[in-house]
């Protein structure tokens, strides 16, 4: 991970892959310019807020990802401008282990 720029973490609702209570996160990263110290800021997007309980009767679909896709932006490397949406979506980035 030192060799990569971890720029985004997508927090998915619990229980979508295994059982209720299992936490799932998707990490977005790219190869860095050097062997160390490539991650400067990490944006978090929380999809657990205002979501139904997923399971066989309520599957997670592509439609559930639309707000994330809009907030993520067009740049596949996570460089699109993002606004802090508070508890409902993208949060302010964490810089070198502390939230600013």
Question: In summary, what is this structure?
Answer:
The chain is mostly beta strands and 100 residues long.
Textual characterization of the structure:
There is one protein chain. The protein has 100 residues and is mainly beta. It has one domain (4-99). It is 7% helix and 31% strand. It is built from 1 helix and 5 strands; from the N terminus they run βββαββ. The chain has one helix at 66-72, and strands at residues 4-12, 24-31, 41-46, 90-95, 98-99. The chain has a 5-stranded mixed β-sheet, with no helix packed on it. Strand 4 and strand 5 (98-99) form a beta hairpin. It is globular. The two termini are 22 Å apart.
The ordered H/E elements are EEEHEE
- Overall pLDDT confidence: 82
Overall structural class, as computed from helix and strand content, comes to mainly beta
Number of DSSP-assigned strands: 5
Round the Cα radius of gyration to an integer and report it.
Answer: 15 Å
Number of domains: 1
| Strand residue content | 25-35%
Major sheet: 5 strands, mixed
Order of the strands making up the biggest sheet: 2-1-3-4-5
The oligomeric status of these chains comes to: single chain
Query: Share of helix among residues?
Result: under 10%
Which parts are unreliable, with pLDDT below 50 for 5 consecutive residues or more? none
What is this structure's SSE topology?
Blueprint (H helix, E strand, L loop, with lengths): L3 E9 L11 E8 L9 E6 L19 H7 L17 E6 L2 E2 L1
Parallel strand pairs: 1-3
Antiparallel strand pairs: 1-2, 3-4, 4-5
